[in-house]
Amino acid sequence: MPRILRNTALISAACCALAASAAAQDSARGRGRGRKVADSASAPTQGAVPETKAGAAPQDPSQRGGGRSGARGSGRSGGRGGDAAAGAAQGGRGGPRTASIVLGPTDTYKVGKGAVEATLAISGDLRAFESANIRTRIDGVIEKVFVREGQPVAAGTVLAKYESSEQDASLRSAEADVAATKSDAETAQWNAEQSKGLFKVGAIAERDLRLTEQAAVAAKARLAAAEARQRTATNTVRDTKVVAPFIGTIEKRLVQDGENTSRGTQLFTMVRTTILELTGSLPARSADDVKPGQVVRFTADGRAFTGRVSRVSPTIDPATRSVAVYVTVPNPRGVLKGNTFATGQVVTTAISDALVVPATAIRANVDGTRSFVYKIQGGELVMAFVRTGISDESRGMVQIVEGLQEQDQVVVGSPGTLGPTMKVTIIGNEGGRGGGRRGQKSTP
Description:
single chain, alpha+beta, conserved putative lor/sdh protein from methanococcus maripaludis s2 fold, Elongation Factor Tu (Ef-tu), domain 3, six-stranded antiparallel β-barrel, 20 strands, 32% helix
């Protein structure tokens, strides 16, 4: 029994000690909390209301509650409140900011003079300037063919030869007839002249004179007929040889040795490719801008070539409402092949010393009625309205007729949001070259 009482007493003493320790900790925490509240109330934090003297004007209602809420919420939002206060203080010192933009050297261009060309797009097939289907003029057997496809030939080159024994015999007979009739004609003419002399002295009658004169006329007629037969025979012999009509290349060979062909049979196809002709079409509204002699720049098979307008059709195609244009293209080395498709531009107007800017520098106002550029002047953007002229699509340049001068610096492309009076900083051009694609110097 005494042991039980002793244990109970020990437990009671331990409980009392624990209770005393807890009370001491609560007291310490209470003192710390009270000190923090006092410090918050006395420190000039954001949202706190300073103490006012008697008779002072009341503060803003939102500020009157600052003292109460400052102590209550300082622990939770003190950091954020401090940042807001710093931002407000900075805004108050700097005032409203001026918009600015940073540009690179390729975002600017220094205005200068250059060449521009007004062009019209054209496309079509490059065809041989001359082409011929060579046919036979006689009936007969081909003795020999001398050329093959792709072979270049000169004008007058023998392409094929017919068996010509019959034609040669006819020619020799015609030549003999000419010789005989020519002798008869000369004799008849001599008799007529002699009869005329005898008639004057009364040696012969007038009837005999007339007979000799008629005989001379008949002999001349027989000579003319014989000469005509000779020419026909000569032409027939000539036609037994098929010759090239012009300088060109054999495109097709349609016969072989020993073939028997009739008159009019096609033997070869020849083309002249030293000069090609591009046949294209342009809209009817552009017909008045195209004239013979204008330069045409085009590409075919990845190569660049130059030609000239040779002819313009006088009529408009009612189906396509377009005008046919024919361009002559020199091809002395045969680099271009016939029937190659080509695209290019007809140069209708060319100016060598125009004031130019890149097409990407030209902008339009809201309603699209006026064009302008952003000019860099005094380190700021200035909206400069311009009047444009020729637009060179191949070079990407536009002629400026009014609104800019040489050495003016303009913004090209879309480097960002732009507006008048924006401050401009150009980076990356220290001691180097800027000016966009043209490599002009640019200074802010």
